[in-house]
Amino acid sequence: MRKLLTGVAFWVACAPVALAAEVTDFTLENGLQVVVIEDHRAPVAVQMLWYRIGAADEPPGHSGIAHFFEHLMFKATDDLAPGEFSATVKAQGGNDNAFTSWDYTAYYERVAADRLDLMMQLEAERMRDLQLTDEAVATERNVILEERNQRVDSDPGSLFSEQARAAQFLNHPYGIPVIGWRHEIEALDRADAEAFYRTYYAPNNAILIVAGDVEPEAVRAMAEKHYGPLEPTVDLPPRARPSEPPQLAERRLSMSDPRVSEPYMMRTYLAPNRESGNQKEAAALLYLAELLGGSGTTSLFARGLQFDDPKAVYSYAFYDGTALDSGTFGLGLMPLPGVKPEEAEAAMDKIIADFLAAGPDPVAFERIKTQLRAAEIYARDDVEGLARRYGEALATGLTLKDIEDWPAVLQSVTPDDVIEAARKVLDRRNAVTGWLLTEEGAQ
Amino acid sequence: MIKRFVTLFFLLASPALAEIKPVEVISPGGIKAWLVEEHSIPFTALEIRFRGGTALDAPDKRGAVNLMTALIEEGAADMNAQKFAETRDGLAAELRFGASVDTVSVSARMLTENRSQAAELLRLALTQPRFDADAVERVRGQVLSNLRAAEKDPGEIAGQSFNALAFGDHPYGTSGDGTVASVTSLTRDDIVAAHRMALARDRIYVAAVGDITAEDLGALLDHVLGGLPETGAPLPGPATVGLSAGVTVVDFPTPQAVVMFGQAGIDRNDPDYFAAYVLNEVLGGEGFGSRLMTELREKRGLTYGAYTWLADYDQADLLAGQFATDNRTAAEAVDILKAEWARMVQGVTEAELNKTKTFLTGAYPLRFDGNAPIANLLVGMQMVGLPLDYIATRNAKVEAVTLDDVKRVAARLIQPDQLRIVVVGQPEGLAP
């Protein structure tokens, strides 16, 4: 084994850090930012249009409108019949879809590279020319209620996450579910949708990512032809969301549901996000999540709770820092049958306390550093994944430089950075701890 | 502008095909593999399949192959689970093991820098797994936890109820993960026996894509797989699909009913397979625009999504599908499903045929967009017996499907009097 580890250390020292694909960027006169990521291995192109508008930008009382709108974007425009958008993409052998988060709404099409021009024509068409009807809005509202039924209301774990997130944010709209609260979805109407659309669906509020077998100059010409003539929104409101006050009180929740087979715990802490020009703390938190609960075998939680003194079926930690206003650091476990919830949670907290006292194990730290570097090599195999990485970062306030610096920032993190970030974030006054219980367990 | 879109369809109707030309590599030791060399990124994606999977389990040992597969990465040779994971992660190698009804699969990504060390680790995992007592108990606990969760998951309940109706006593009729009782009673000997049954050289399929030469791949395969036994356990015999028309309601308290449905399907090597493939696409295929998606979602807002698929198991074929809808609208949605099934007996329209062919032929090259996805496709092709030049000929097979072909296969395949519909929930107007 010694020999293997030496080999790895050598490799880490010699491998180049930057392994990024060819990336080109430019901005159209109307404010549309364009990023081209080249990968010529397969004759495929992905177009992603990211709008800097998400659930956290919704007017109070109208939760779900950003996601609802994502659905409505597949309806009629002045030149396209209802459903014609997707039918056209499909007729080219392509696929299309969209997704909404708190900070962005994104649309994408994946097609043979020689179909890119048509995809731009379509996507540009619906940026400004959507034509909504009351009937289309009413039918789609039912679809979204069924989506909520399927994804949230049928799953006690999802319902519980929704409650926990609402408790995490005292003031910031990150506490509102992206899909919306059911009673507010039921009240959304065409007027809500149209006001939202006119303001936020504009070239100066969007980022176009084109990835795959494409040439930057050709993309520029197509983008100018299709997106260039679109009018920007002149008084685009700033993305100023209500911010969090100091969080002074630990929050604890419990919920039980007959559909829960075994209890589990999840805890999230309010954490810093990746900030433009200052991503070091976020990078350190990524290491922290990996060290505490990244691997189901070798992380501190796995060793302590699943191997040395088994108390948990599984355990984990994660860090989500790609967000405009605030990140979250999370951890959780499911106790082994017969282990009391409070006993399992105390064991996890003891591991955290010991870690804060002792700091990272240098061998584990180096292993994670190696894996993060290798992840950059594997990431190059998935150009759509790269496109998402760029879109998500740009839509959450980061710059191209931040994205390109990120692998090097990750490699520059030291064990001291990790312990410093951990001491700051792992404070239960910032945290929501939730237990989802079986019906019997709650009695 | 509508007119302009239509013109463009026409002009761009035949897409550039990806030039993916796998070569067959036969290792010095006689192991066959398909390879695509792609040297621009310094890693190799390797996919290995062992035919058999969880269907190899004896009736009283259900879950043995699944538990065995989950334990492959939990220690090998002189490494316990901790040491094995540390070594793998230190090499930044990815080694994933999975069991499905018909296969045990290995998905590996190995950096060129340390490929021989990563391959050695894979060899030890496959040929010298330890199945340590503490690892068995730990992973068994995880499997049992999943099984208990599945008992309360309407989607899982629907799938298992449907499979029981379709396949009865055949291994396909019960979950390959086993039951709480069967997994609880598995011994280490059962796991060792499952390993001996499932991982053998008479059932291996391999594809590699990436930064590796044919010569290096051959040597790697002999090293990694050469130590496995020559033969494994016999495969289970064919399963008979015993479905009859009707609705089976499984009472379960949930706001939204899960509806799973199906009937007997068609063999992958049937001369009419491509016509059936087109038919399925029209009925409930990918994305928007299928008949079920249009009727249930787009026109009426009854569901978030409705899909059908041709399930090509090794020992049976199904045409199956699924959607979820509010308990209050389940009866209406089931009626629409039945009506669409009956309508499909007539085949498809010319417009539907053309639209579907354009989509399928255009979408095909888009699948080949990365080393890992290509390796996955190539190993799958081998398992269903497709030739090395299949990629270049596949779109022509789709293009050749005629309206009469679909009509013929529809009359033969679509059997409204065999359509079994399982509804899990508390649907109004549907009797249990």
Automatic annotation (TrEMBL), chain A:
Signal peptide span: 1-20
Segments forming domain Peptidase M16 C-terminal: 188-372
Stretch list, region Disordered: 229-254
Domain of life: Bacteria
Residues in Peptidase M16 N-terminal domain copies: 34-179
InterPro entries (alphabetical): Metalloenz_LuxS/M16, Pept_M16_N, Peptidase_M16, Peptidase_M16_C
One Gene Ontology biological process: proteolysis
MF annotations from Gene Ontology: metal ion binding; metallopeptidase activity
Record's keyword annotation contains Hydrolase: yes
Alphabetic keyword roster: Hydrolase, Metalloprotease, Protease, Signal, Zinc
SUPFAM superfamilies found in the cross-reference section: LuxS/MPP-like metallohydrolase
Family: Belongs to the peptidase M16 family.
Name the record gives this protein: Peptidase M16
Record organism: Gemmobacter aquaticus
From TrEMBL, chain B:
Signal peptide stretch: 1-18
SUPFAM superfamilies per record: LuxS/MPP-like metallohydrolase
Positions of the Peptidase M16 C-terminal domain: 185-358
Domain Peptidase M16 N-terminal: residue ranges: 39-174
Entry-linked Pfam families: Peptidase_M16, Peptidase_M16_C
Family annotation (InterPro entries): Metalloenz_LuxS/M16, MPP/UQCRC_Complex, Pept_M16_N, Peptidase_M16_C
PANTHER family in the cross-refs: METALLOPROTEASE, PROCESSING PROTEASE
Name listed for the protein in its UniProt record: Peptidase M16
